[in-house]
Design brief:
single chain, mainly beta, Thrombin, subunit H, 2 domains
Length: about 200
């Protein structure tokens, strides 16, 4: 169980970022009643969240994968059920048309550019830019409101477009007691310095 998850319900509100895995949209929320089985997410934009989500608790390195099972007003009930659905071929996953301004950078070098995400699915997305040829295959993608980059691999390129396979930082099990789940302040400062050195999350040309 992650450090913020305790036996029984977490009655105090915990700040969190919630990512809709289909659309790559991210909203700020409060989480209540956090257990190994699920939680309640409260935010004004809860209606924007559909089906499967990634839940990033404050200062925790990984995300919890959940499924929204019901909506009521500004609340959504989320299940962390470990039941596995039938595997879906990635190319057959539903892709949603989106238009998200993102910053993409090399995982090891200093190449950084602004581009658009023009469609997305649970396992990947498609980038558009006339500068994509400058990027290596192994990249990080920063999207608005999410305070951690998404690790990805470019799997195809065609002109101004590139297809990316995303490696979501999900915890394998909400009950796992993996040590050092929280981000240490010194690690967070180092990451911020690293990103500033490459132009910041959204400060590139």
């Amino acid at each position: 169980m992650q450090e913020l998850m305790v036996a029984g319900a977490q009655t105090d509100a915990a700040p969190a970022l919630v990512v809709d895995l289909d659309k790559l949209s991210c909203v700020e929320a409060k989480v209540y009643g956090l257990t190994e089985k699920g939680c309640t997410v409260v935010c004004e934009q809860v209606h924007l969240l559909k089906d499967e989500i990634g839940l990033r608790l404050n200062d925790v390195k990984t995300m919890l994968r959940g499924k929204i099972v019901s909506h009521s007003g500004n609340e959504a009930q989320v299940s962390f059920s470990s039941e596995k659905s039938e595997p879906v071929e990635k190319r057959r996953e539903p892709r949603r048309r989106v238009l998200i301004t993102a910053v993409v950078c090399s995982r090891v070098g200093r190449e950084t550019l602004r581009c658009h995400i023009v469609d997305a699915s649970k396992s990947g997305c498609r980038l558009e830019s006339d500068q994509l040829h400058k990027l290596p295959d192994e990249i990080e993608i920063s999207i608005p409101k999410l305070d951690m980059p998404l690790v990805g691999t470019i799997v195809w390129r065609s002109g101004e477009f590139a297809g990316v396979s995303l490696n979501w930082p999900f915890s394998e099990n909400p009950e796992s007691k993996a040590p050092n789940e929280r981000i240490k302040p010194e690690d967070q400062a180092a990451e911020m310095a690293r990103r500033r050195g490459r132009g910041g999350a959204f400060g590139v040309r």
